[in-house]
Amino acid sequence: MITSLDLLALTHAAVLGEGRLATPPVYATAAEGRVFKPGDWPSQDGLYPLVKMRLIAEDRQSMARSGAAQFTTAATIRITGEVSAPAQFDDAGATVAETQLWQLKRQIEVAIVNSYPLTAVIQQIASMRSQLSFNSEAATHLAGVQIDLALEFYEGAESFAPVAADELDQITFAASRFPPVGFSSTLAP
């Protein structure tokens, strides 16, 4: 059984890279170990490039009209990549920031698509939509990409079970009408 939060954790691990635990570490992107998920959202000069991600949506589509619950679920993970470059003569710093951003975007996509632990538990990568933005109005040029990643997976009745219930080991019935009637039975396992 897989959940959308599990997919967020697997996406985080994929963007960090499988070699992150090696000595020396080998990361999947230029952001190296600066890949954050909710709770850790730094945006400080000197920390670029960096990647931030969070689960922003979940969409379930029923697969059957009757019987046990079955859904095709799409978890949408928003990944934000940020880079910076110092201003340079003839606006060259903006070009550097834009080039770094396109490289970071590509590294993120390659890390996700090639992550076996992630792709092994999903049905498909339903979509990857990217939007890029640039700001070259200050001494430091900033550029960012927002990638909305839709990961499709199956959820069946086992995803919503077990239903909490007390063990049934005895049945007792008592009627309050005249004449009073009642019985009790112990159930065998």
What would you note in describing this structure?
With 189 residues, this protein is an alpha+beta fold. It has one domain (4-186). The chain has three helices and seven strands; from the N terminus they run H-E-E-E-H-H-E-E-E-E. The protein has helices at 4-16, 92-113, 116-119; strands at residues 35-36, 50-62, 71-86, 124-135, 140-155, 170-175, 181-186. The strands form two sheets. A five-stranded mixed beta sheet has the order 1-2-3-5-4. Strands 6-7 form a two-stranded antiparallel ribbon. The longest helix is centred in the middle third of the chain and has 22 residues, at 92-113.
Percent of residues in β-strands: 35-45%
Q: How are the strands of the biggest sheet laid out side by side?
A: 1-2-3-5-4
Number of strands: 7
Number of domains: 1
Q: Which structural class should the secondary elements be placed in? A: alpha+beta
End-to-end C-alpha gap: 29 Å
Number of helical segments with 4 or more residues: 3
Overall morphology: elongated
Cα gyration radius (Å): 26 Å
Low-confidence runs of at least 5 consecutive residues: none
How much helicity do the residues have?
10-25%
Short characterization:
The chain contains 3 helices and 7 strands, in the order H-E-E-E-H-H-E-E-E-E. With 189 residues, the chain is α+β, with helices and mostly antiparallel strands.
